[in-house]
Amino acid sequence: MAATRSKRTESETVRRAQLLRAARKVFRSKGYDGASVAEIVREAGVAQGTFYLYFPSKRDAAVSLRDGLMETMARAVATAVESRTSFEDRLESLIAAAFKVARRNADLFRLAFIGADETHAEMHSESPEHAPFLRAITKLFRDAVDSGEMEAMDSEIAARLAIGLLQHAMIEAFVFGEGEESDRLEQGVSAMLLNALRRRTG
Q: Which residues of 77-96 are buried (b: 16+ CB within 10 A; e: fewer)?
């Protein structure tokens, strides 16, 4: 009985991933507005009823893709800030890691932030991965304040503002642009945050 349940769970995980791959392909070629559940199931090679076993709507599939992207980004950021290098190096690594994930998944990043122009409020719900993302950056800032590498300030507020700047820069690069200015925007975020946060001496 347990083996049967395990097989069923594994099969469900595989089918869900299959549907998400198909949804990503359709969203990439048609855009969020142009995509339909019918096209997603056609791409996946399954019946339309199968889609609704896993996702109540097209929106839910898009949100699942967004959450997967944010999970990948949160892991990359957490890894970047774990190193024992200087605060400046870890901050630059964090920004580079976030931009690297966004570059590799520009189609998902555009999908995640289609609400940036306010036409798709349904995509504004916060990803559950925002919390670990915020915790990792808050810890980086708190440690830097404690070590004297960063100006004394509220670490969580600083982290929220830094995430806002980073997110806006990536929206500029991959939602409103085609990534052609991503290097300049990445360098700009690094320069602004380092100038604002690192402790001034003398």
A: bbebbeeeeebbebbbbbbe
State pTM to two decimals.
0.85
Is 171 a residue whose pLDDT tops 50? yes
CB 44 within 8 A of CB 22: yes
- Give the Cα separation of 24 and 114 in Å (integer): 14
Which of 154, 129, 126 lies closest to 141 in space, CA to CA? 154
- DSSP output for 33-89: HH--HHHHHHHHTS-HHHHHHH-SSHHHHHHHHHHHHHHHHHHHHHHHTTSSS-HHH
**In the chain, what are the domains?**
1-55 (1.10.10.60), 58-197 (1.10.357.10)
Interval 120-142: pLDDT, tens? 655 666 677 788 889 999 999 99
- Is residue 154 predicted with pLDDT exceeding 50? yes
Encode pLDDT of 72-109 as tens digits.
Answer: 999 999 999 888 789 999 999 999 999 999 999 999 98
What gap in Å lies between CA 60 and CA 131, rounded to an integer? 20
Tokens 């980004």 correspond to: 73
Chain position carrying tokens 């995980």: 13
